[in-house]
Design brief:
Layout (H helix, E strand, L loop, with lengths): L3 H15 L4 E6 L22 E5 L2 E5 L3 E6 L5 E5 L9 E7 L4 E5 L6 E6 L22 H8 L6 H5 L10 H11 L12 H21 L38 E5 L2 E5 L6
Antiparallel strand pairs: 1-6, 2-3, 3-4, 4-8, 5-7, 6-7, 9-10
């Protein structure tokens, strides 16, 4: 599933090519995504894109007074292709901008979404209650510790809650907890201020490294130019069946909230 680094990689890949370009064509081949694509999308023909932002895992296409919200879902991807390129399987949306390449949205599972609205997109119901961005000044150890005091669930589950902090998916939660030396089963309300600060810093470091590497290579994820991400080459514990790169003990896999968790019982306490 594309997470924050993958979505940010997509944003950075698309914006230089689309910013300032007018929408000249919109083809909705399959309107039944997670929510139906609104017919008002067609009203954006002739509107020029001012910028492309991200909030959590949502891409915000800003057209001035109006905007699109685009979510990639479980298996979605946005790519720029030549106008003459034939549509691929599971390609549900095509948008032409100016005289440049066309934006294509492919989503085999159809869990993604394309919505539109007016005014401030951050007030949209899907965005209004999200937690802080992990790479912003609003997220630090003090914020994380304060939020953890209210929770007795496992710390891994808490940092994956988008109301606590956005964009920490399963892979990045495992890697951040490893870097911080914290057992994923630790109760959140037992996390000390010092360990909360270390974990907040680890989350920032892991996500920044993933963005620098172009996202994590997953079966369904490619960047906007069709190339895979490369952060998977640097994973320490997630998906690993061997020994810990730090202490040499065997990496364990458990299931938490129906998701696989990988950790080192020697390094993470």
């Amino acid at each position: 599933m594309p997470e924050l680094p993958e979505v940010e990689t997509t944003r950075r890949g698309l914006e230089p090519h689309l910013r300032g370009q007018p929408v000249t064509r919109i083809d909705i081949r399959q309107p039944r995504l997670r929510w139906p694509v609104p017919e008002a999308i067609q009203n954006f023909r002739g509107h020029s894109l001012r910028n492309l932002k991200r909030r959590g895992k949502y891409l915000i296409f800003n057209f001035g007074e109006d905007y699109w919200l685009w979510h990639l879902g479980m298996s979605g991807s946005l790519r720029l292709l030549p106008p003459e390129a034939a549509p691929a399987a599971h390609e549900h949306v095509r948008v032409d901008f100016g005289n440049g390449p066309t934006l294509r949205y492919r989503d085999p599972r159809r869990f993604g979404a394309l919505l539109c609205g007016s005014g401030d997109p951050l007030h949209h119901p899907l965005l209004a209650d999200l937690g802080p961005e992990p790479l912003s000044d609003a997220f630090d150890g003090a914020w994380l510790h304060e939020r953890c005091q209210r929770r007795s669930s496992a710390i891994k589950t808490v940092i994956m809650d988008s109301h606590v902090v956005v964009g920490v998916g399963n892979i990045y939660a495992c890697e951040s907890l490893f870097l911080a030396g914290i057992n994923p089963k630790t109760r959140a309300n037992r996390l000390s201020p010092g360990r909360a600060e270390r974990l907040a810093r680890s989350i920032r470091d892991v996500l920044s490294a993933a963005i620098d590497q172009g996202g994590t290579t997953l079966r369904d994820f490619t960047r906007s130019d069709g190339q895979p991400g490369y952060f998977a080459q640097r994973l320490n514990v997630y998906g690993q069946n061997g020994d810990c790169p730090r202490c040499g003990r065997g990496i364990r896999r458990i299931v938490q909230a129906q998701r696989s968790t990988f950790y080192c019982p020697g390094c993470q306490h």
